[in-house]
Sequence to fold (130 residues):
Amino acid sequence: MRRIAVKETYKDGQVIIKEGGYGEGTYLIISGKVAITKKMDNENLNIALLEQGDYFGEMSFLDRQPRSASAIAVGDVQLGLIDKDFLEEEINKTSEEFRHILNTLTARLRKTSSLLLKLTAENHELKKQK
Fold:
């Protein structure tokens, strides 16, 4: 069951989440699209384009680390902010082993995303040299 605490609306180009910031918000895209970007050498690299039904912001909620990327509205976007208390309650219902698995997956995803960013940046530089 999805528990939306509040609905938020963003206009094209508005920053929803800023890379490096802290926050516990996990979002559900109700309508519109959201670009996930990472800063590399003063350029924003597009990592993903999320659409209706997609979630984002979950990694920082799970591991309490800074945001790994920025989220920017593409066109008009309506988001549902998932209720933090509901998420905490659901996580607390799981076993300690399962919470450890979630933390391991999150750490691996951060590491993989970092490697992907490095390779994407190298590819981008090679294309510029051509």
Observations:
- The chain has a mean pLDDT of 88.
